[in-house]
Amino acid sequence: MAAEQAAQKPQERLSAWLAGDMAAVNLLIRDRMASEHAPRIPEVTAHLIEAGGKRLRPLLTLAAARLCGYDGPFHVHLAATVEFIHTATLLHDDVVDESSQRRGRPTANLLWDNKSSVLVGDYLFARSFQLMTETGNMRVLAILSNASAVIAEGEVLQLTAAQDLRTDESVYLKVVRGKTAALFSAATEVGGVIAGASAEQVKALYEYGDALGIAFQIVDDLLDYGGTDAVIGKNTGDDFRERKLTLPVIKAVAVATAEERAFWERVIEKGDQRDGDLDRARAIMAGHGTMEAARQDALMWAAKARTALDHLPAHELRDMLADLADYVVERIS
Amino acid sequence: MAAEQAAQKPQERLSAWLAGDMAAVNLLIRDRMASEHAPRIPEVTAHLIEAGGKRLRPLLTLAAARLCGYDGPFHVHLAATVEFIHTATLLHDDVVDESSQRRGRPTANLLWDNKSSVLVGDYLFARSFQLMTETGNMRVLAILSNASAVIAEGEVLQLTAAQDLRTDESVYLKVVRGKTAALFSAATEVGGVIAGASAEQVKALYEYGDALGIAFQIVDDLLDYGGTDAVIGKNTGDDFRERKLTLPVIKAVAVATAEERAFWERVIEKGDQRDGDLDRARAIMAGHGTMEAARQDALMWAAKARTALDHLPAHELRDMLADLADYVVERIS
């Protein structure tokens, strides 16, 4: 039994432990994504929400709350809130990135249109604020509304930093905090706050979510250059085509030879991309070891996440969260 | 002096009476629309917010609060919240409608791109939730988050109702409540709530805002068929080109001859629009008097708004709000 359990992925163990709570979250999500007047809304959201998303963010909220001894009803509202915010940002991201595939299926903007994606995203944002308001807890409202602002700010920053070779690792970190880590850290932090955890524990939960989110996003960016369509359900090379400055590219630009620099200027700044350019980008990064260097950064953030958990009570869920931090980076090794 | 004052438009009298409060609102808006990390954000918002918008919604909040005797600081936060929600919906509307002009200037989606409009809109939504959270008042949070959901739902409904000749007046009313009246009524209602007004007064403020918003939108829809570019700073005929079923069209479709029905099917359902079709649409509506019938509906809503004010204390601001209800419809006569 122990060996069998160890063979399970940490996220599956979290899902199993929190199965009852997660069932309540799924019920609430299904209830609140409905719309009496506009049937287009549940059509679009069902496409996304039932597409087998990993529900990672709501699991983080539920785990944080339970780990801190919460036994009230509102961690379910907060978990659904976090999933709604996430789904809304996915809908808007697909419009912004002009994506055609998400989780191995056509995106909503392709199946319906950009208009529906924008407006249904807005609807889910509004629903998420309704849900969090129902908790009656001003502190979680402040945390989640701040996180929403950081997310939007990070997305705008990514938009203006794309195609700009001057983008450095500090800008990258701000973008990553916005697009991923802000919601991870808010998800864990509100779990602690609703449970009435101590200031030190709440801070530790924030730091865990922040570091986990950064590790997660670095790995996602690496997979975009190294994964396969089948594995990640997303077109490899998307970031390259969208001329995004992700960590392995930023590191490669920093040490580029004159010839390599000319290559990056052509494909990223000018957007003049030809057959074989993606392979050449991979070869240049391999030559400088920047994929491996980015993986080391991800490992460092994962270790930071694990360390933050030391401030939390000993608990099965704490061990699963620690394993999750390691697992996030193992995806690429 | 009395004659001079009477000659001023009601909104100008509200602006003058509330000048001190409005200055505080403008300062707060300027402060909160900034972004340390992403300069694109204030560029886009300044373009919209400083474009001489009428600031009608924040004036409604300030007037409602003052009229109910409020002397705290938070009506300013709520007024800024309402303007941020409004500006965010304008940014997203322009993407959805593919508009090229707003308030007589090129739209943000044309000056920058759709991506910036989507993401900066999201940023303003998030900022609006931060602002309302700062009031610490759970009831205003519930009212404004509900209004946001109704707004988004109304926009989706409008999207699916467009091009559909079965759209009737009851669907139109839902769309109009979503796109306009929900924010008007939330604006006035939260003004009363923050002032600690009685349940009866809060209900009256809600009803005033709701009826004013419906009258306002009916008039806006009429102007789209009858105004001039110079007067309304918007391209006349936009609704026709976007195949929207607005009130005068819905009334004309309901009484159409077989030949007229074929015309509406071609231009609205099939979207096959040719030179002279907009003029023909106007002629058909004039023939059935549906523009005038819609104007009568607007007058009825304006009267309803005025009547709701009877439940509120006698006050100079109350008189201005009453005059505003009449003025909104006078725009087209």
UniProtKB/TrEMBL annotation, chains A, B:
The cofactor required is: Mg(2+)
Q: Into which family does the record put it?
A: Belongs to the FPP/GGPP synthase family.
Q: Which UniProt keywords apply?
A: Magnesium, Metal-binding, Transferase
- Return the EC number: 2.5.1.90
Catalyzed reaction equations: 5 isopentenyl diphosphate + (2E,6E)-farnesyl diphosphate = all-trans-octaprenyl diphosphate + 5 diphosphate
Leading EC class? transferase
Q: Spell out the Gene3D superfamilies in the cross-references.
A: Farnesyl Diphosphate Synthase
Which is an annotated GO molecular function term of this record?
A: all-trans-octaprenyl-diphosphate synthase activity
Q: Which GO terms describe its biological process?
A: isoprenoid biosynthetic process
This chain's source organism reads Pseudotabrizicola alkalilacus
Keyword Protein biosynthesis assigned:
no
The identity of this protein, by name, is Octaprenyl diphosphate synthase
Instruction: Return the InterPro entries for the record.
Output: Isoprenoid_synthase_dom_sf (IPR008949), Polyprenyl_synt (IPR000092), Polyprenyl_synt_CS (IPR033749)
As for what it does, the entry says: Supplies octaprenyl diphosphate, the precursor for the side chain of the isoprenoid quinones ubiquinone and menaquinone.
What is a single Pfam family found in this protein's UniProt entry? polyprenyl_synt
